[in-house]
Amino acid sequence: MNDSYTTTFTVPNTAAEVTDAITDPRAWWMADLTGATRQVGDEFSFEVPGVHYSKLRVTDLVPGELVVWEVVEGKVMFVADQDEWTGTRIRFEISPADGGTTVRFTHVGLRPADECYDACSGAWNLYAGASLRDLLVTGTGQPSSNPDEVTFRENARSDD
Q: CA 134, 88, 91, 42: dihedral to nearest 10 degrees?
């Protein structure tokens, strides 16, 4: 797991609030998800036509401690091995911290050697590292269904 993409942040929220936010990815990741996201066995998917499709299953859910999603089907259309995401796991480890809760997000199996790593890790920086954190701290995340918006927002942030 050490060579997989990881980001960590701490928020002033309770572990229960963090779990609730993570299990509502429409509020911070992709607004156009279909399916259920809150219980073990739930499956959900999203598609950005011509760019990315993923179907995920909730495999682990320990409120206040851990949320894991397995990518059961994934197509990343802008790389040669379009199945790079299939079989990977998206893992949220939740732990108490002084005055709040720490979230360690790891996309297990998304490795620097993967062709989509730069683009995918950049998107995770935005969604898991910023949008999820913003949802928790301010009550508003920045979910998207348009990958061009990621590039636009990253460019806008770098212009500040």
A: 90
